[in-house]
Write a structure and sequence with these properties.
The protein has 13 helices and nine strands. Helix 4 runs parallel beside helix 5 and helix 11 crosses helix 13. 41% of the residues lie in helices and 15% in strands. 41% of the residues are buried. It has 346 residues and is of the alpha/beta class. The strands form two sheets. The chain has a five-stranded parallel beta sheet, sandwiched between helices. The chain has two domains: 140 residues, Rossmann fold (3-Layer(aba) Sandwich), CATH 3.40.50; 166 residues, P-loop containing nucleotide triphosphate hydrolases (Rossmann fold), CATH 3.40.50.300. Keywords: ATP-binding, Cell cycle, Cell division, Nucleotide-binding. This is Cell division protein ZapE. InterPro entries: ATPase_AFG1-like, P-loop_NTPase. It comes from Paramicrobacterium chengjingii.
Length: 346
């Protein structure tokens, strides 16, 4: 197991942690995760088989410079000479680099008042500071980036619509990617029109960029998550401890139950100081609520690039056939791809 020796060698349990985050803590964390701390337009590697990827890079470079982009033909049959819209929405399947491009846009923004976070993090900020307090904090920022815009909760969706509408009216530019759940549009496609319909007051604010392509993780990784025995986990923990690294050790079911009492916005704090994660006795999930919490947790583990070693069934097989054929199919497929990558890294 390739684990960076960054912490004193100890064995910890994620279920023992009860992280708390104030509104100030949440605001301080509104920046790209470590995985994307060096993301740039130059480091994005567009797939030549999908011209929309390079076209998105070209548009975002121009958007970042505050100029009026000349759109490629596939964005619109009739090029629009009007002024640059204050918002851009990246629509595409998982693994095509939307978050990388969103982070690259954030890094390219010269202003110091700029924020980057997931939809869940922004709604948690409103919960902590109140709506008025959040508006006060974010007003005057030059750029707001929202990753994984959710349509699962109509109340949160419309609250974010109101917030972004107010910010756009004050001159703040907006950028978003979406994590829409409908499965009716076919595998690998996100519902751009659903996004625009739900937040109708912002539809004229956003330029929608379609990014086609295949999951880049799947280009190099096939099959299922690597699975090991409990004895091999014990050996991995011994090696981690001897090398001065921190590896957590938890039972899968107990961890899933613990995630139910920790708000998803605090999942990142569960991972403070963790170099590697061990999960024992992985089994298929029987609750969609539990499955969605696991997805949110894996997103944060992937952002932090923490390898996972697990026993039981392969981690990417924990979602039932009913889940994979339902409305949250896209989320589960993204999590499966990320878990394969993280278990391979271990």
């Amino acid at each position: 197991m390739n684990i960076p020796p960054s912490h004193a060698g100890t064995v910890k349990h994620l279920v023992d942690r009860r992280p708390e985050m104030s509104g100030e803590d949440l605001a301080a964390n509104l920046a790209p995760p470590p995985q994307f701390e060096a993301a740039s337009f130059d480091s994005y590697r567009p797939d030549g088989e999908y011209p929309s990827q390079q076209a998105a890079v070209d548009y975002l470079r121009t958007f970042s410079a505050g100029q009026t982009p000349k759109k490629a033909k596939f964005f619109s049959r009739k090029p629009k000479p009007d002024a640059l819209k204050p918002g851009v929405y990246l629509d595409g399947g998982f693994g095509v680099g939307k978050t990388h491009l969103l982070a690259a846009l954030w890094h390219a923004e010269p202003g110091t008042r700029k924020y980057f976070g997931t939809f869940i993090e922004y709604t948690a900020l409103v919960g902590a500071l109140g709506y008025v307090g959040t508006v006060s904090l974010l007003t005057g920022s030059s750029l707001i980036c929202i990753d994984e815009f959710e349509l699962d909760d109509p109340g949160d969706t419309m609250m974010m619509t109101r917030l972004l509408t107010e910010l756009a009216a004050t001159g703040t530019r907006l950028a978003a990617t979406s994590n829409t759940p409908p499965n009716a549009l076919g595998e690998g496609r996100f519902a751009a029109q659903d996004f625009l319909r739900e937040i109708h007051s912002l539809s004229s604010t956003f330029e929608t960029l379609r990014i086609d392509g295949t999951d880049y993780r799947r280009r190099a990784i096939e099959g299922n998550c690597v699975t090991v025995t409990d004895g091999e986990i014990d050996q991995a923990i011994q090696r981690a401890t001897a090398s001065g690294t921190t590896m957590t050790d938890d039972n899968f079911r107990t961890l899933i139950e613990h995630l139910a009492i920790v708000h998803p916005s605090r999942f990142i704090r569960l991972l403070d100081g963790v170099d590697a994660i061990a999960i024992r006795n992985t089994t298929e999930l029987d609750s969609q609520a539990s499955a969605l919490r696991l997805v949110a947790f894996i997103d944060r583990v992937y952002d932090a690039q923490i390898p996972i070693v697990a026993s039981g069934i392969p981690l990417d097989t924990v979602f039932s056939d009913d889940m994979l054929s339902g409305g949250f199919r896209k989320k589960y497929l993204r999590a499966m791809s990320r878990m394969i990558s993280l278990s391979t890294a271990a």
